[in-house]
User: Fold this.
Amino acid sequence: GNDGEILTEGSPLESQGELRGISSWAKRQAEDIALSNISNGGPSWTILRPSLIFGNGRNLTALVGPRIGNFVISFGRKGKHLKLVHVRDVAKAILLAITNESTKDHIYNISHDEHITVDEFTRNCLKTKDSNNLHMLYVPYSVGLVVFGLLKIPRILFRKGPNVNRVRLSYLCRDLMADTSSFRKATDWHNENSLLKQLAGEVRNSKMD
Assistant:
């Protein structure tokens, strides 16, 4: 998808999903198997596509990028939107899908209906009084291409180093949002709370640990 695009269940899937990583490729293969069963008259399936899941103690910093010391590397611009959904909202969605006959043989996006930018997330959730020394490094696509090109050199020469490619970089930098209206209409599913309140709750829980 292009920057600013809102993804629906009908949006085309990536043709090179295997280049994004093993996890992404495995999810794509599982969905293809389910869809083939549906088309061949096999068992009924309900396919849920959750956004990036947070909650239950997951490291919040990882939602925007890897952390190295006091630096967080975020691919894309600071105005990029994050597609997020709390783990409790995902669990509720699964229960509703299982108990609702009308969801059979359908595909649904599962995401919070509110969208937050990386910059808003950083200011509200990461740059608290306990993390004043945390610094964000934003890496737009053009800069990322140069960095990833340099990282390929040791991999080519010594067969060591990170396995990077343009497909993965493009995905990390894109500004995409998700439309969940189909699942909400089918099941009356709703988010437990506002996105900022859910994130704030995770920040408080992490401080207590």
